[in-house]
Amino acid sequence: MRTSQNEHILEKKHAQISTINSFVSEPISEIAFISSLYPFEHIGLKWIMSQRFCDWTEAKHKHSFDELRHGDLLLKYVQEKKLQLSSIDLFQVTQLESLTQKTTHKYLKKLFHLVLSKVYRVTSDEDKYHYSYAVLSLLIEKRLMNIYPHMQKDPAPVQLQNLMKKLVEDEFEHLNMVSPEAYKLKKEGLDLSELIKIEEEYISDWYNEISSSIQNIIVQ
Which architecture characterizes domain 27-219 according to CATH? Predict the structure, then answer.
């Protein structure tokens, strides 16, 4: 039973890698996909900045600065790529960006509601903001570390590969920073493995919706 579950997980991961490769192999889908990643960084920044002053630390300060910088780097990359497009392709990209970013916001909203409902049940009023930040960051950083590294190699354009190498180093540091805090809630009864499993379902829907949007717009 466990073997079949592991095989299913590996199949999904291979399918997601294949999907990422297909996105970054063409300029229009590449730009739309990179645009869909910007909200991960932007929302992450907003959540860090919502922390109480008494919970603020030097590590959170660096985390917030990194998220801001990452968002700027992604936007700059997208803007530079758009300059290379024809007017028709630019029109398609504009349509796609709206759809893919809406899909990402939908995914993040579901994830926030899930995490807050679980964390608030096992923490005090004083601790709920800090631990909600830790668990949300854990899930989002884990997700980005399942996306960014696959764009460090072909078929991603060299410029994108170089950008991803910069981001991956920071995301790995963020993941190592928030993981110990998030896992402290295991002894309070929070099942992190359940949250990770549910997030996998959410991200599968995310991939499917973005793929569908790209297919529909480009085929037109």
Answer: Up-down Bundle (1.20)
